[in-house]
Design goal:
It is a single chain. By secondary structure, the protein is of the alpha+beta class. It has two domains: 18-157, Helix Hairpins, CATH 1.10.287; 161-272, Sandwich (Tick-borne Encephalitis virus Glycoprotein, domain 1), CATH 2.60.98. 52% of the residues lie in helices and 25% in strands. It contains three helices and ten strands; from the N terminus they run ααββαββββββββ. The protein has a four-stranded antiparallel beta sheet with strand order 3-10-9-8, covered by helices on one side. The protein starts with 15 loop residues before the first helix and ends in a 10-residue tail after the last strand. Residues 154-158 have low confidence and may be disordered.
Length: 282
């Protein structure tokens, strides 16, 4: 078995918590912009509502004034008929025709006012509905922001750092598939998930892994890492332990983490630096 090379000084890594905070601030900023835009829209809709209500009041005042004028005209005409005994029948007929014309004009104006009032009422109802919808959207956005913050905090609490078997401070490690998905989303390293069957040699990224032995009751296993035409045995390791090795011309640090051990197989992932070579098939 080849001797493992000495451990180099760990390279500084960007704080994952700082990146999570930056992501949270970006989400909060987007939410604040959305809420501000929604409040501006609500203000515009309320302004329109006030204007339409004022217009409706003006229409009602005009209708009342028209009714008063019509009643006054009718009273005056009746008074004239009562006192104009000396007028000819022709004059009376002309005055009657004028009065009937005025009545028809007043009825038409009243009908127009009623139609405009109905239209204004429909518009006011529509604006009230839009305001209600915007308020609902704002409330939904606030709920989504709170849920996102809660989910981020819960995921960050589950992810942890560990010291690898070469004594190097590991980055964040995953204990299951959902946490591995979160690591992939963060994108701090390249991640390749795998399931190894006992005895089979399986290519993973630019190296190969071979499961030699597994004890699911004790959550222990032995695996061979084949890289750079050499074999590195990781013997009697435990689930969740970062297994580290150096490979490539630039002597890059690779890391294997197993988070599940069955009778004849193990499941986990290989993580590599962002600038590490990628498989030809990708």
């Amino acid at each position: 078995m080849l001797l493992e090379e000495p451990t180099p000084a760990p390279e500084p890594q960007a704080s994952s918590s700082d990146k999570s905070h930056i992501l949270m601030y970006v989400l909060l900023a987007a939410a604040v912009i959305y809420v501000a835009a929604s409040l501006y829209l609500i203000y515009g809709l309320k302004t329109r509502l006030v204007a339409m209500e004022q217009k409706q009041q003006d229409l009602e005042a005009s209708q009342a004034d028209l009714g008063d004028r019509l009643n006054a005209t009718s009273a005056a005409f009746k008074q004239e008929l009562a006192t104009a005994t000396g007028q000819t029948e022709q004059q009376i007929a002309a005055r009657t025709a004028e009065f009937e014309k005025a009545q028809k004009a007043a009825a038409a104006a009243a009908a127009r006012l009623s139609a405009e009032q109905r239209q204004q009422g429909q518009q006011i109802a529509a604006v009230n509905g839009e305001v209600s919808n915007v308020k609902t959207d704002v409330g939904t956005a606030k709920t989504d922001i709170q849920k996102t913050q809660t989910d981020l905090a819960a995921t960050n609490q589950k992810l942890e750092k560990a010291i690898g078997d070469l004594g190097v401070q590991s980055g964040l490690i995953a204990h299951n598939a959902s946490e591995l998905a979160e690591l992939k989303r963060k994108g701090e390293r390249n991640y390749y998930d795998f399931t190894l069957q006992k005895g089979a040699r399986t290519p993973v990224s630019t190296v190969s892994l071979q499961l030699k032995k597994v004890d699911p009751k004790k959550s222990r296993f032995t695996v061979n890492v084949i890289a750079d035409d050499r074999t590195i045995e990781k013997k009697d390791r435990t689930v969740g332990e970062p297994l580290q090795f150096y490979t490539g011309r630039d002597h890059m640090l690779y890391e294997v983490v197993v988070f599940n051990a069955d009778k004849n197989s193990i499941t986990g992932y290989l993580s590599t630096p962002k600038n590490a070579p990628t498989p030809v098939s990708q």
